[in-house]
Amino acid sequence: MTDTDIKYGLAGVVTDDTAVSKVMPETNSLTYRGYAVQDLATQCRFEETAYLIWNGELPSQSQLDEFKAMERAQRGISKDLIDVMRKFPKGAHPMATLRTAVSFLGLEDKEIEDHATDKLYERAISMYAKIPEIVAADYRLRNGKEPIAPMKDLGFSENFFHMCFGEVPAPETVKCFDISMTLYAEHSFNASTFTARVIASSLSGIYSAVTGAIGSLKGPLHGGANEAVMHMLKEVGTAENAKAWMLDALATKKKIMGFGHRVYRSGDSRVPTMTDAYKKMVDIIGTDEAKMYWEMSKTLDETMVSEKGIYPNLDFPAGPAYYLMGFEIPMFTPIFVMSRITGWTAHIMEQLGDNKLIRPLSNYTGPAQRDVTPINAR
Ligand SMILES: CC(=O)SCCNC(=O)CCNC(=O)[C@H](O)C(C)(C)COP(=O)(O)OP(=O)(O)OC[C@H]1O[C@@H](n2cnc3c(N)ncnc32)[C@H](O)[C@@H]1OP(=O)(O)O
Ligand SMILES: O=C([O-])CC(=O)C(=O)O
């Protein structure tokens, strides 16, 4: 093997087939099962997209009703899990607590390693129903409040707001959140999805695969960037400071969170739709602070594009949009998990539907073979 055979970070390498989604950097577009993501985000509720990602087709009204009933029947985490969560170390990051809580769901399910598609689907729906409650309960416990039980007559997004805050905001705010859920749901072989497929490929079980995927998504080069973006906006401080801050950050070779992408080189297909939702949140909230973040974001974006030709990714508008919806910054990446659980589990099912152990090769760069020196002679 020569160096030219190596694609560091697997950049540009095609490793398998998928029918779940298609990322088209040449046209800045993304489809889930053939449907443009911006059409799904604006014309469908997240529940319809979730059904599509798992089943390959958009649901009829009766299929959607049945699907919603299945999800709602799975709502409600155990008292044992809530008791375990009460004992989590104070100050642990919510992505770390979510990773542990999802692993605990696997213990409660006795880690049944059944790879039949219908069994995997049942477990996928169970996690999709329970993860929002884990995220909301963790938020409340960290703030010294008791968890709020899910309500079975509320939609997916409405129920999440209810479990966090005890109330559901105006439909326009729920719609902005729902749009973000659809945009975050799936993105082919990104790092966390690939992690899930690698773990699934050893036949380790769906909970192991999702737990590993959560660990991968947590990093700031991947899903953790939506939190890092909001920390960055807070550090910038004022809209007037945005250009100078960016120029200084670029001069000192800082990584600017929420910009750049491994696959898209001239813009992320999901950004225009999420930017519209962010603007909508700015108009709904209407405060000087909200308007200031909007102006600041525009200046950061314009400066980065004109100076470096590097475009924002989905995390750039999603972070401040979640902030304006009232969520604490450390909840942003767990909220991403509530959506991406659909894509991850669709890929796990696809992987196990025609499994081959994922095991690439490496180019060895260590010492040449040598003899062991006895310990008393070293
Ligand atoms: C939902 C998601 O996961 S979307 C991604 C979220 N992640 C982020 O927003 C984190 C910030 N962005 C990044 O770190 C990167 O753009 C990544 C990790 C997303 C993609 O990385 P790669 O494909 O490996 O690109 P790579 O790091 O090689 O960048 C190519 C060049 O652009 C520069 N670049 C890329 N992104 C950025 C950035 N955000 N800030 C500053 N420079 C950047 C690199 O420094 C590099 O420059 P060089 O050639 O002079 O060394
Ligand atoms: O595709 C990627 O590398 C990262 C990304 O945008 C996602 O997972 O949504």
TrEMBL record:
Gene Ontology process terms (BP): carbohydrate metabolic process; tricarboxylic acid cycle
Any Pfam family the entry gives: Citrate_synt
Superkingdom of the source species: Bacteria
Catalyzed reaction equations: oxaloacetate + acetyl-CoA + H2O = citrate + CoA + H(+)
Keywords: Acyltransferase, Transferase, Tricarboxylic acid cycle
GO function term, MF aspect, one: citrate synthase activity
Pathway membership: Carbohydrate metabolism; tricarboxylic acid cycle; isocitrate from oxaloacetate: step 1/2
SUPFAM superfamilies from the UniProt entry: Citrate synthase
Entry annotation: catalytic residues: H261, D315
PROSITE patterns: CITRATE_SYNTHASE
GO CC field: cytosol
Family stated for the protein in its record: Belongs to the citrate synthase family.
The name this protein goes by in its record: Citrate synthase
Organism of this sequence: Hyphococcus flavus
